[in-house]
Amino acid sequence: MKNILTIVFILIAFCVDAQSSIVGKWKTIDDETGKPRSVVEIYENNGRFYGKIIQLFRDPGEDPDPICEECEDDRKGEKIIGMEIISDMKYDKGDNEYRKGEILDPENGNIYDCKLWIEDGTLKVRGYLLFFYRTQTWLPYTED
Predict the structure, then answer these.
(1) CA–CA distance, 78 with 85 (Å, rounded to integer)
(2) Domain positions in the chain
(3) The pLDDT of residue 17
(4) What topology does CATH give the domain 2-140?
C-alpha cells in the first residue's frame, strides 16, 4: 500500500511540475483582432529561459519574412523569424513564475521587463514599463 501511495504522489508531483514549465511552442494572439500572429519557442539554457519567433502568421499582402525596422538595439534590421524576443527569464519556485528577464515587441521595437506563468494550460505573458503593464495569453502550439 505504501508503494502505491508513493507512486501516486510522484505522479502528482510530476504532473504539477510539467504544468509549470513554459518550455515548448506557444502561439501568440493579436490583442485587437484575436488572430494568431506567431509561434514562439521557449527553451532553457543554463537555468535561464529564452524565446524566439519560429513562425509568423501573415495576412495576404504582408511581408512573409519581415525585418525588425523599429528595433533600437543590435536586432535592428534583423529578420523577425528566428529572433530572440524573450531573454534571461529565471524561474521563481516560490511564486511559480518566470521573471527578471525582458521581452521585445518587434512591431514597435520596445523592450519591456517581463513575467511569465502558466494558468489553465495557457501561458500568461506580462510586459512591464514602469507601473504600466499588458498581459497576453499565449496558447500551446501543436503543428497542424
Answers:
(1) 12
(2) 2-140
(3) 44
(4) Lipocalin (2.40.128)
